[in-house]
Amino acid sequence: MFYRRQVTILPLILFGLFVIIPILEIATFIQVGSVIGLPMTLLGILLTAIIGAVLVRQQGFKVINDARENLEQQKSPVEQVIHGVFILIAGLLLLTPGFLTDTMGFLFLIPPLRLTIARKIWLWMKNNGAININAGTMSGNTRSSSYQRSDTTIIDGEVVEVDISEKPDNSTNPNHRLNKPH
């Protein structure tokens, strides 16, 4: 029987975050510094951090206000939560020194791009695992949705507590031959 080996991506993500990205950032610093000089490179890093912080703050307040309006109208603020997560990630990327992380951070500040990325992540999650969503409303009503891969095997069962201190009655036990000593 062949088993499909499932590769976890977390170690690859961590390796990329803590090894590959810093190496690429250092190489970019060296290249940019050799072209425009060290003072201008440092100024560029500082300016992107300041501009990024201002944009993150602006967009963050807008998303909070939009979410508040949706809640007042008893609508679910799912889209605003998605935007908020991407704005948070953008802020972290923009505060991290480096031109590549700043580029990624600025890309995450583009609203249509955020939704496109979120849709792709959602499709990947639907195709590669099980997703359960439980939602409640302000009035107390709840909804539940579940998405699962079609090739996933689900085994449903019950737990039965057995008291081993009682001697089994062999006449009603279909497996009574298993209880007899040989």
Description:
The protein has 182 residues and is mainly alpha-helical. It has a domain at 19-130. Helix content is 61%, strand content 7%. The chain contains six helices and two strands, in the order αααααββα. A two-stranded antiparallel sheet has the order 1-2. A hairpin with a 5-residue loop joins strand 1 (131-136) and strand 2 (142-147). Helix 1 (10-36) crosses helix 2 and helix 3 (78-95) packs across helix 5. The longest helix has 35 residues, at 38-72. The chain is flat. The two termini are 35 Å apart. The mean pLDDT is 82.
Oligomer: single chain
Give the number of DSSP strands: 2
Order of secondary-structure elements:
HHHHHEEH
Q: What is the CA–CA distance across the termini?
A: 35 Å
Note poorly predicted spans. none
SSE diagram, text form:
Blueprint: H1 10-36, H2 38-72, H3 78-95, H4 99-107, H5 111-128, E1 131-136, E2 142-147, H6 176-179
Antiparallel strand pairs: 1-2
